[in-house]
Predict the structure.
Amino acid sequence: MHVCVIGAGVVGVTTAYFLAREGHCVTLVDARAQPAEVASYANGGQLSYSYVAPLAGPGVLPAVPGWLLRADSPLRFTPRLDPQQWCWALRFVQACTASASQRSTAQMLTLSYLSRDTLHALLEREPLAFGHQRNGKLIVYRTPGLLEKARALVAYQAGHGARQQVLDARQCLAREPALAALEPQLAGGIYTAGEESGDCMAFTRALFERLRALPGATVRMNTAVQRLKRLGGRIVSAQTGEGGIEADAYVVATGLGSRDLLRPLGQNLPLYGLKGYSLSVPLAQDEPGAPAISVTDYERRIVYARLGNVLRIAAMVDMGVQDSRIDPRRIALLKRQVREVFPRLDLDQALQWAGVRPATPHGKPLIGACRAADNVWINAGHGALGFTLACGSAALLADLMAGRRPAIDPAPFAP
């Protein structure tokens, strides 16, 4: 079967690779010159398999007014005269219940653990260089009440296969000495030894090169798909400025662009862009001021991941800003908050980045058949978890397209 995969971010490249490995003829097409140029370029770098609870949760709505009134808030909401924004926000509010959050967390864990196992199997076959480390992750809390809520989540996730430890402040500092400046405020943390990190862009581009070497695989970069041409109940070509791409099946994996591509066919994906920022800080060898393990500052919603000789720092959710321009005020705030925790880091040389992540209201990606055409499939809406979930999402979609029984229940992710 000839499959056209639209989108060369981490999800699209991983999907194209898995389909090509199964023997399909695959054409990967993307508007950019290089893969991983948009949301996959400089994300948080954490492969966070046990931390996939959705943003929508019972504790979110009470906190929103305080976040919106604070200048140093991790969340910023810019209202627009945009029906898509308000429909998404309403569905997000509806998902902020304890039962919905627990259900989504359990479902997401099945996909994240599939992704972890699939990535490990992939790396045994393809030794990709992307700064991969299995160095664990520590989430630190300043507020005892939030630590107790996290303890309850640890107990819940233990029933779904997660292996985590609740640490007091002293144990957190023993696990990560670079957090010494936070000691007076530190209530404790949650440590997960099995978490990993890596450079998403490096992973995507390394796998892209493996894809290009596979028989039957074709890549067409600098080629924007403008629309999908439908005849009856099927798509007969992906229309580009250079003509049509004819295939037996099409996979739409172009992140936020998936919404605009499928809307003319009658399928309106519940996707909205959540903008985030990152800093990439060059490190000297054995830099003592940087954490050796992945760290998440829970109250500030800042993540830290060691990627070889770079520390990736990612943070913030800006809703209603649908471009990737860097806001100097947000970067200045991020640097100030980072210096409070890791004062020895030299942030003057940090590379700045901003990107818009395609998110669903309930936090689950959309993986499966498109309603609008018989031969179109969707793999989109991974939010901030695209790197973590890419391999599992590709494996799940490959099973569905082949008519095989998947390793996990696909129903929670059906578009």
